[in-house]
Amino acid sequence: MFSFAERLILFNQYEILKKLDPDKSSLYGRHQEVVERGFEDLYQELGITEETVSAAAAQEMNDILGLFRAIRGSSVAAGNTNPDKSKFVGFGAAQPHEQFAYADFLAKILNFPQEISRSADNQPEAQLDQYRKMLRRWDEIGRKRELTADQIEHLVA
């Protein structure tokens, strides 16, 4: 998976990290051994995944989160009568890797505020198709940031 040159670079990086962060020296030493010996089955232990998140998948997640920010920002002023349906349910681990990984990153690492729905029909694994339908409806109304109650109802229908 890694070329010899890449393994050598990683080995040296871990050597530097051992000096910079002595508290984690043993961890970096184990990572060095994995890289040095080319144990490909243990590369995932280095914290590196083979899977990537495409720009298109990231943009879709940004669009979905933008949609929910617009709904959340407009709900009080619009007198939203169905607040549970308009909350961001999130994504489940059964989603395709790209979507789940990016949304998980935004939620956990960047502390993206989520208003998780507590309704009985909260099934994050089934949400991506619903979010895509909502995006199409949002496109129909020009992706407005300030929504009326009728527009919110149309989006969450």
TrEMBL record:
It holds the Pfam family YfbU. It comes from the Bacteria. NCBIfam families: PRK05445.1. This is YfbU family protein.
